[in-house]
């Protein structure tokens, strides 16, 4: 028997993938490819169809139309083969809170047919790799959010999957826990694992992905490498926060004067504008000093997802409240 | 970076065979047992209601029902065991419902394991609770003066109870898969189980019931199970109620297991 998975450059191939829930079109003719051994980032707001797409590729849900091949296997006709190649870490941890970390991993190992001793060894190995050895014998319900996500990721790796689906693996995590998880993902990719990562954070996609697909309302609206995308959307954003909240209007007036074409975003007492040229910073700083506007924040950062969407679609992400809901 | 090749991993590709399915079901059951180990209070919780029912039925109704509490105890223990076993199966459904909503089953379904293993494993593990409960009830009954027909028959009664519970658990699984909350599973179960157990020979001699009720009570599966338990543990005929108990178990399994599996597969929309 030939293994279609052993040939071809693409670990994930998606063509015209579509999913309807009644009248709702959750995923609308999505085409995607992930080269073996790379990270494909799928960037989009909540409700864009990311999870629905991942569920179809992980054989949890049947597409309404279109095809998907994972490791060369068709996600419908060869679902059992696909399952033996993949690992899945969902948005909501698929671990048993009553069981200890070690038991959770040992359980998956046993399910995968490992002899007890091997399952134990694999569990210990993963716990060490994920910096959870100290908590190995504690019930998972006592774990912090970051530890749970790490355990969940570890659970998806017990069978050494060649292709890994990470569905918003860091949503709701604090920056430190997020950084730790990124490190783990990089390690897996260095070992040759192909990763499909969905995220709401541009920074996450930028940090991890070799290629990014931006999706909105179930459709791919942009694809490219992080550099290409950033070039397309103006790349960076400048955040300016006056020390005195009362000076916000003066600041806005100045920004409007200097950048009449831009639409500044005001939030949390700060003004954010998209810039392509870092050279504006010194002149702007001088202007601010002249007008006596003292600052608590003045820095260039990567554009937020909101700004990316504003640029690509002309509308903002509409689901900020939901995002926070999901993070909880 | 050059493209890495995707190699087939060690686990066998394709659909798991019977041996693998059995082993996966046992692993699923292992998980449930470990849960009890970490939360032993569940067993106390499990024991409270049968103990309460046994004490209340015997010492409150006993004199009125059979002239003496000891005679009623000899009659009703089998019925109470049958009723308790049926109620216990409800927890199979609520447990599956909780796991389904929490995303634990998403993980299971993304693994190369048999589709039936998570459900079957849960049902299988819950049989431990059945054995535990019958043990508690028989022991408490004996403390209250119950005379056991024979230890061998008591073991047989336990086996019969487990077989029946294995079959009817699929009703609970079906409800657990279909319902959108644990509370709904409990409500469904309650409305079905309560009238079902009371319109049987579990607590009273059905010849005292009006004709139409008797007609139903005679075919009610709970009557057959109660009679079988009574026969094996206490007194009365054994083979006929036993036969009908198995007929009902087989019929219920044949109808509800495929329905539950179908509903479970449909969940994967």
TrEMBL record, chain A:
GO terms for cellular component: plasma membrane. It is a peripheral membrane protein. Residues 12-242 form the ABC transporter domain. Keywords: Antibiotic resistance, ATP-binding, Cell membrane, Membrane, Nucleotide-binding, Translocase, Transport. InterPro entries: AAA+_ATPase (IPR003593), ABC_transporter-like_ATP-bd (IPR003439), ABC_transporter-like_CS (IPR017871), ABC_transporter_ATP-binding (IPR050763), DrrA (IPR005894), DrrA1/2-like_C (IPR025302), P-loop_NTPase (IPR027417). One of its GO terms (biological process) is response to antibiotic. GO terms for molecular function: ATP binding; ATP hydrolysis activity. It is found in: Cell membrane. NCBIfam families: drrA. Belongs to the ABC transporter superfamily. Drug exporter-1 (DrugE1) (TC 3.A.1.105) family. This is ATP-binding cassette domain-containing protein. It comes from Glycomyces terrestris. The lineage of its organism: Bacteria, Bacillati, Actinomycetota, Actinomycetes, Glycomycetales.
From TrEMBL, chain B:
GO terms for cellular component: ATP-binding cassette (ABC) transporter complex. Keywords: Antibiotic resistance, Cell membrane, Membrane, Transmembrane, Transmembrane helix, Transport. It holds the Pfam family ABC2_membrane. One of its GO terms (molecular function) is ABC-type transporter activity. The keyword tRNA-binding does not apply. It is a multi-pass membrane protein. GO terms for biological process: response to antibiotic. Coiled coil: none annotated. This is Transport permease protein. It comes from Glycomyces terrestris. The lineage of its organism: Bacteria, Bacillati, Actinomycetota, Actinomycetes, Glycomycetales.
